[in-house]
Every structure is written in structure tokens, then in C-alpha cells.
Amino acid sequence: MSVDGREAAILVSDNNARRGNGVIQAAFFDIDGTLLSNKTGHVIPQGTKDALVALRRRGVKCCICSGRPKAQLPWCIRDGFPGFEGGFDAYVVLTGSMCYDERGIYADTPIDRGVAERFVGLVDEGLFDCLTLDAENAYANRDSEKVHELERMVAYSYPIRGAREMLENPIYQFCAFLGPKDQHIVEDVMTDCIVTRWCDLFCDIVPKSSSKPKGVQATLDHFGISGAETIAFGDGGNDATMLEYCTLGVAMGNGTDEAKAAADYVTADIDDDGIAKALRHFGLID
Predict the structure, then answer these.
(1) What is the per-residue pLDDT for 78?
(2) In this predicted structure, what is the pLDDT of residue 164?
(3) Given Cys at both, which of 48, 66, 100, 257 links 31, Cβ 3.0 to 4.6 Å?
(4) Which three-class secondary structure string do you get for 151-188?
(5) Is 204 helix (H, G, I), strand (E, B) or coil?
(6) Which helix (H) or strand (E) holds 25?
(7) Is the distance from CB of 90 to CB of 64 less than 8 angstroms?
(8) Which of these, 205, 202, 175, lies nearest to 187 by C-alpha position?
């Protein structure tokens, strides 16, 4: 929902009245297209860094909520930066299938082995290439142009390992290199999973017992603020449920139509200080 100015203020007022009109205690951020910009070499823009520092000083828990695995978190996300030392307060990764903080893992939802074997059967048939994500990293089933395209998008090189070989360890997420028109290939078979997508290149497959909203709730429970008001930022279709679930959902100006439709507020692009502008709009930072 694209809103601004007085219309946004009315919508937010209505939203708070509906959900309790409390104080925002936790903020959840997607990574690609939300915190990391392709135009700045896949680092956090300085204006966003300054906003995160100011938000934490207000006592707000700053949390990651991403489809990336742990090993794919860049240093600025994992370790932080000046004024934001130690990184984020919590990490909801693998589209909500694993949640952890500095004390360790507090939510863990792998895909059932039988369900994972069913997906690998589709890969064995040669229907599509895939990424297989375990607790630490993501592996491509083979070297292909679609894998290289994703590597260019996220500035990461995926190691090669067969999908069936990966079944030796718990699997938390699959990524199938299928466009939107072909997504039914996995939806028709993986009926006990959630199929979502960040971009047209691939779709994510996670267990139905896992999702970004469930990761958000697990994090609030972990911190003992289960009834807290929350704000979330995202840009992709796989962020839509998180934007709807949190008290305030903010879509980036560079986001997809699906993300914008799910949001309470559409801010500026990532490279135009979209996060900082939204936080100021809602009075969360000066």
C-alpha cells in the first residue's frame, strides 16, 4: 500500500488503535534490497548505518529476518560496524527456519527428511537446478548460468554439492531455480511446504511450520516481549507475510508490488535513505 504524508499518519493511527498503540520495541530487517544495496557494493549505505545506531540507542531490538543462511551473512551484518558493534540483536535466517543470537539457537525448524527426499527427487529428474541450505551454508547442485546470475546478485560464490548428498545433514530450505510461471512444479508436489520468492530467478521452499512471521514471534518470545509492538522492513515477495504480521510493515521504494501491497507504508529506495526516512516518519529516530 503506497502511502505518504497525512494519509500515512491516518493509516498508522488506525493500525495502532487496532493492535494496541504500544511502543515499538523490536525492528526486523530483510537483507538484500533492504539493508544491502547493489549500488554500494553490497554494503549497508551510511545513512542506514546511522539510522540503525540511533534506533538501538532508543532501546529498540534490531533484528535480521532473511532467507540467507549464517555463512552468507556479510561482515557488516554479522559483526556490525562503528556504533553498532557486535552485530544485530538477533538473526532470523533461512526464512524463519532458524533463529539465534549471541547466546545460541533459540528456534530450529528443519525440513522433515521424507519431505526433503521428495524435493531432491524432482532435482534428480532434471526439472530444475537448486540450492540446498543446511544450518550453516547454501550449496548449488551444479555449476550453471542461473547459479552464476544469483551469485552476481548477492555477491557470493556457492560451493557445489549434490542435493542428494546434502541429505546427510538436516536441511532447512531449498531454492528452486524456477520462474513464476513454473513455480507450480514444486507447489504441486511440495504441498506440505511454503513456497515463496524474493525475485523471478528462483523460489524458496521451507516447511509450513516455519516462516518469517514465526521467526519474528519466536524472537519476541525469546526476548520476553511477546506482546511488543514491532516494525519490519522488506522489499521482496518473501517479505510480504512479515510486513503484514508486524505492527508496522514498511516496504522499500525499490521493492516489488507484492511487498508494497502488504505494507502499511512505502518509503524511499534503499539508496535514498529509505530506512532512515521511514524511522523518522514514525518518530522512532530524530
Answers:
(1) 95
(2) 94
(3) 66
(4) HHHHCCCCCECCHHHHCCCCCCEEEECCCHHHCHHHHC
(5) strand
(6) strand 24-29
(7) yes
(8) 205
Tell me what pLDDT residue 124 has. 96
pLDDT at 17: 31
What pTM was estimated for this model as a whole? 0.88
Angle, nearest 10°, between helix axes 274-281 and 46-57?
30
CATH number for the region 113-207 comes to: 3.30.1240.10
Residues 130-151 have pLDDT tens digits of 999 999 999 999 999 999 999 9
Say how far residue 152 (Cα) sits from the centre of its chain: 19
Pick the closest to residue 220 from 210, 229, 208 (CA basis): 229
Stretches where the chain sits below pLDDT 50 are 1-21
Cell 516518519 locates to 281
Other CB atoms within a 10 A radius of the CB of residue 197 amount to: 21
Q: Reduce the DSSP state of residue 66 to 3 states and report it.
A: coil
Q: Identify the pLDDT of residue 38.
A: 75
Residue 16's pLDDT is what? Answer: 38
In this structure, CATH architecture of domain 5-109+211-281: 3-Layer(aba) Sandwich (3.40)
**In the chain, ranges of CATH 3.30.1240.10 domains:** 113-207
Rounded Cα distance between 220 and 216, Å, is: 6
Is the torsion defined by CA of 76, 103, 67, 131 positive or negative?
A: positive
